[in-house]
Input
Amino acid sequence: MEKKILLEENEIPKYWYNILADMPSPIDPPLGPDGKPIAADALTPIFPMEIIKQEMSAQAEIPIPEEVRSYYAYWRPTPLIRATGMERALKTPAKIYFKNESVSPAGSHKPNTSVPQAYYNKLEGIKRLSTETGAGQWGSALAFACKLMNLECTVYMVKVSFQQKPYRASMIRTWGATIWPSPSNQTSVGREFLKKDPDNSGSLGIAISEAAEDAATHEDTHYSLGSVLNHVLLHQTVIGLEAKKQFEKIGEYPDVIIAPCGGGSNLGGISFPFYRDKFAGKNVRIVAVEPKSCPTLTRGEFRYDFGDSAGFTPLMKMFTLGHNYAPPSIHAGGLRYHGDSPIISYLVKNGLMEAISVDQLETFEAALLFAGTEGIIPAPESAHAIRGAIIEALNAKQEGKEKTILFNMSGHGNFDMSAYDDYLAGKLHNYEVTDEEIRQSLSSISSI
Ligand SMILES: Cc1ncc(COP(=O)(O)O)c(C=O)c1O
Output
């Protein structure tokens, strides 16, 4: 039995898989301020045309440009690894595999989309990209991609993460980008939030508003988003396309696929290529894992809402806790988002995807088990998938079943060591939101 299932460089996928082509029914479109489906033209001030086309495309296979494939080769194909150490520790009959996306230069799955996004912007003559970042993984991935493409890059980083992870900020600067803790004084929306509360610790929703304002007010600047939108999930399908090939090589197929879910991009990336088989009748379960402190898919409402706090973005039909929801400061910064990808939301709503939520402490317990048996220290976000995989493996043990589990190791936690220090010192807590908090947050958007 092999520990690592590897592919050759020439097996890097040649196309991205667009799940929209195979959906059982159309998903509800994003809406503009007039309440009508948004037209492509409305997005041109912030996105390049190729990205807008991908966002709206119904073509199943979208070719990956050769230049993008040549950059993917810096770290792709990523290994599929059998978690033999964890299987032994859990004494489970289940086979556990993980796709190791932590081997990219930025340390996560995020460069799978930052590279093509920077590439298409460069082709259109754009000089600078602006973006938000929660945990710092996305900001560093975009800084890296902009450096490769010779673009300037401005990152608005959620203030609490900026303070928790100073070395993520150093990494972003090392790749030549400018970084501001958000809310910042750089934008009118940032100044507005600071006026209301000078100690505002920030949220992804506010940082998105700042980055979007920056792009909309500068001619040479576009905006780049690290999750949620269709084109981002599309780019991430290289994960699942490779994984399918790797399972083919060993003559196996997963019974269940698990990933952490913030905006849904790594989850969509690993699972969508398997939906091609699922839609054709194959029995494969897909499970999203989210934090109990930000339970969008498990306790949010499926309705139209804005993607950011200031209401700059189009309205999207998704599971949401309300765009003003301020999640507690848990360490999985990338999972602190009030909404979710409309595609992921549709799949959950229609019973095609399961969703569970887990506590912060059980997540870190899972992370330590994984670090101690497989060696890699996972990002707190990725540890949610590890907890999900442990739940499945222990169920298999109880049922005496030999099932095959695949989870996405979306990133390493080498810049999250203060979170590990706090966990080891017994300083971390569980945060479960109350029904009343969710009701209040949702009632504040009831007029939309
Ligand atoms: C390592 C890692 N995993 C998962 C996520 C969640 O994002 P998404 O749901 O878009 O994959 C993030 C977001 O920052 C991340 O950094």
The mean pLDDT is 96. The first helix runs from residue 49 to 56. Residues 67-107+231-443 form a domain with the Rossmann fold fold (CATH 3.40.50.1100).
